[in-house]
Structures are given as C-alpha cells and as structure tokens.
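stage 2 :: seqdesign
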C-alpha cells in the first residue's frame, strides 16, 4: 500500500512539473510586502507567476535580466486593484534584458534622465527578447532633452503595445524608439508632445503595424518609418534597409512638423489615416543611411488618406538618394482651407485619383464625417485595414454598406441608427439588459399570432441570428454568450425595435 501512495505522489509531482497548468504564485511588491523593489521580485519569478505591485512611488534604476515565462505560462507585472504605481526618476525606470513571455500592465513612468523604460536583447542578435505585451501604461514626461526615449526597444520580436499614453518626450528623443524590432503591433495609444518622433522604427525593423493611435503634436516626425542607425546595431545583421513592411493604419495625426516620414524604408503602407494641419509637410521621403549596398527609400504606398494641409510649404519633402518614382499614391483627399488656389500635392508619381475638397468633419476632435463628406465611399477595394480609428469596420460591412467602398481617412462614415419606439401594436422587453449569457425577448402586445425578429451587431451590421419567432404575448431566449461584447439591435419588418447591450 505504501508503494501505491508513493507511486501516486511521484506521478502527481511529475504532472505538476511538466503541466502547462502548474501552480503559479503572486509575488507582492510594496511597503511592508515581501519585496520592496520590482527587481528583487523579478529575480524570483517563475513561469506563470504574477508580480503584484502595490500603490506608491518607486525610484527608478532596476535591472531585470532573464525574466522569462513560456508560451503556456506568461509572467505578469501589474498593479494591485488599479492602484497608482509610479516609477519616478533614475536614469531609467527599469531595464529588461533577454525577456520572454511577459505582460506589463498599468504602470506609470516619469522624470527619467536616460530612457524611461529600456527593453533589449542583451546584444545577442540571434536570440531576441520576444512575446512582450505592454498595456494600460503611461509615460508622463522625461527629465532629459537629448536623444532620450520614453520607451527604448532593441531586438524585440512579437510584441504588443496597446492602450497606453505617451506624453512630453525629450526634445531630441522618441516616445517609442525601436532598433531591429519585428512582428509587433502598436495600437490604440495616445501620443502627445513628442520630441524628434512619437514612433521611430529603424535598424532593420520590420513587419510592424501601427494602428488606431492618436498623435497630437507628435514631434518633428510623428511616425518615422526608418531613420539613421549605426551599422553594428542592425538586426538582422546585414539588413540593407532601415525599415521594411511597416503598416500605418487608421491613425489620427494633429500637428507635427511632418506626421509621416519614410527614411530608408521599403515596402511600407500608410493607409486610411487622417492628417490634420501639419506644421510644415504632410510627408517626407528621405535617405539618411547610404552606401554599403543600402536600398534607396522606395516602393512605399500612400492611399485612402485625408490630408488637411494649411502651410505655404510643398506637401511632400523629397531628399536625395531616394527613389520617389517607385512610390504609389492611391486615392487621397487633400484640402487647404487657407488657400483656395492651392495647386494640390506635389506627389512624385501621379495619384490614382486626387480629391481636392473639404472633407467636412463634424469637428476637429473626433474627425467623424458628416453625411455630405466627399470622402464617403471613395476608397478602393482594399481589405486592410479592416477597422477604423474607433474600431468600427470599414465598408463594405454586411447589412450596412451594400455596394459601397470604404471612406477615406481614419474614421468610417456610419449613417445614424436610431432606435424606434415600439408602436402600440408591438412592444418588446429584453431582460436582463445588459446581458452576458442569455437574454429573453418578451412580446407584451402583438397584432398577429407570430412576430419574426432579427438580431444585428450594432456596429458592423452583421446579422447574428435570423428569424427569431416569438409567439403572441410570449418570449424567446437568445444565447449571447459567444458573441462579442457590444451593442446589438433587434429588427422587425425593417425597423429597429430594441437594443441589447452584451457584456462579458
């Protein structure tokens, strides 16, 4: 019998060691907790652990090396119950080297003198840091004026930066600076008062999507696609471009000397953005790294954008050693509100179609289009980006935009959808509302024996369920546990008669 128990214990131990669902721990950081600094907790963290930081102000300067989860057990660094956790001062808040499968959530950084946060591969170019998610964080300001970045990334692959705020960068630095980074997504962030750049991707960086961000006075170049990098720092070694495959989708740019700059960049797409009153140029085409087999800046694409341009400068600045003749300019809307005789953009190659007209925004905050905007339905049949700045689907979306192309700019036009009050003939009650699993649709008064009701996604117009049949003064239950959270409309005989809010 003892042998049976011993065998069972050995099997359980082996399962816990090998299982991707092995027990995880919470490592607490804060005054009176097990650890007083992030660095100390990180040294003990194992795959699956959570480093929980309690509210307070923490001095910068932590060095974190080899913090590594795995694909089944990420390591999470987060705040306790959304408490304010501020890393203030120091040369940098912390530097993470050789990091893998790590999430960082909810931290605040301010007043660093070097770089706010530094992520790198330790100089081992063939083994990049990878699988890093940064979300809901805020960089408030830098205590530096030189080439100092709020978020510095070198040799990082497969990363996501979302729902963050980057404010008040150093005069000569970037809010996000990437050297040799690949396969990343930078989405739904707010950038304001950048120095040289808001986002810079250089040194062989590639295949990064920058989408649904808002840039307000984003610096000399809000998005610098490429740049100037010393040859020893390129990742991969021997890359003959500064940036490749960078996609800039569905962003709003307000101000900045030049919202978009292509600098030693190839095969990049700038599509469905709204650019509003840049300080000097809308676009720059430049080459700062030359020789050694480097390709000239070229084969890039600019299409489906709205540009409100109100300076005396040419809209596009083209430097030497570039290949502007290889650029593609699709359908774009250009408008100069201060000069009715403006001759239009000086594109180096002819646009597929140029629209010169007032885009008719509702305002210069949300940049939604009015119903008379000439930008509505003027796009081509491209399929990316699929969603606009507000995460709504671009046309054509099933049930909403029959036989219509997407709008130009970052914000798709959606016709107003009003919910009609139920008539005296039919009255509908939905409960619970909001709902998370099942919602019951009840008919309190009805003219005929049965009534057919359809359920649509209120944003995309997608038909979720068809021909829900409710008997007279009866009810029907609808399973909404597998649909995305959001607003859904009930339609009867072509009329919207109710609304359901789904939460999870």
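stage 2 :: out
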């Amino acid at each position: 019998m003892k042998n049976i128990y011993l065998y069972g214990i050995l099997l359980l131990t082996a399962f816990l060691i090998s299982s991707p669902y092995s027990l995880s721990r919470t490592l607490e950081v804060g005054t009176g907790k097990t650890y007083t600094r992030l660095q100390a907790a990180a040294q003990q963290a194992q795959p699956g652990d959570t480093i929980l930081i309690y509210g307070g102000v923490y001095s910068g300067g932590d060095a974190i090396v080899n913090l590594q989860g795995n694909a089944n057990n990420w390591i999470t660094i987060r705040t306790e119950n959304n408490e304010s956790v501020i890393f203030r001062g120091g040369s940098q808040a912390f530097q993470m080297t050789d990091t893998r499968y790590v999430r960082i959530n909810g931290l605040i950084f301010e007043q660093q003198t070097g770089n706010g946060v530094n992520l790198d591969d330790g100089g081992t170019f063939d083994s990049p840091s990878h699988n890093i998610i940064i979300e809901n964080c805020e960089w408030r300001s830098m205590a530096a004026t030189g080439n100092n970045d709020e978020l510095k990334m070198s040799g990082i692959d497969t990363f996501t930066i979302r729902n963050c705020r980057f404010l008040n960068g150093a005069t000569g630095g970037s809010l996000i600076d990437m050297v040799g980074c690949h396969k990343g997504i930078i989405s739904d962030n707010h950038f304001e008062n950048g120095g040289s750049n808001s986002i810079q991707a250089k040194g062989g960086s590639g295949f990064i999507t920058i989408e649904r961000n808002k840039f307000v006075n984003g610096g000399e170049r809000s998005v610098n696609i490429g740049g100037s990098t010393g040859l020893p720092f390129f990742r991969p070694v021997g890359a003959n471009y500064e940036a490749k495959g960078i996609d800039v989708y569905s962003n709003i740019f307000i101000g900045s000397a030049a919202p978009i700059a292509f600098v030693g960049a190839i095969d990049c797409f700038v599509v469905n953005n709204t650019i509003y009153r840049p300080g000097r140029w809308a676009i720059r085409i430049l080459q700062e790294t030359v020789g050694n087999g480097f390709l000239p800046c070229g084969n890039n694409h600019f299409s489906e954008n709205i540009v409100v341009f109100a300076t005396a400068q040419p809209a596009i600045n083209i430097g030497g050693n570039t290949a502007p003749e290889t650029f593609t300019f699709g359908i774009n809307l250009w408008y100069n509100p201060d000069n009715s005789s403006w001759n239009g953009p000086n594109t180096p190659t002819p646009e597929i179609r140029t629209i010169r007209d007032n885009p008719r925004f509702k305002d210069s905050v949300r940049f939604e289009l009015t119903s008379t905007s000439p930008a509505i339905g003027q796009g081509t049949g491209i399929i990316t980006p699929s969603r606009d700045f507000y995460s709504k689907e671009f046309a054509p979306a099933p049930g909403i935009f029959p036989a219509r192309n997407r709008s130009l700019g970052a914000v798709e036009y959606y016709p107003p959808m009003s919910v009609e009050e139920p008539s005296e003939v039919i009255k509908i009650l939905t409960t619970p509302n909001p709902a998370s699993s099942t919602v019951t649709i009840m008919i309190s008064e009805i003219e005929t024996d049965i009534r057919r009701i359809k359920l649509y996604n209120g944003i995309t117009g997608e038909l979720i369920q068809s021909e829900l049949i409710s008997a007279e003064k009866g009810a029907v239950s609808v399973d909404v546990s597998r649909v995305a959270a959001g607003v859904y409309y009930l339609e009867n005989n072509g009329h919207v008669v109710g609304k359901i809010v789904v939460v999870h």
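stage 3 :: structure notes
- Residues 9-13, 15-21, 418-425, 445-450 have pLDDT under 50 and may be disordered.
- Residues 54 and 81 are 8 Å apart (CA to CA).
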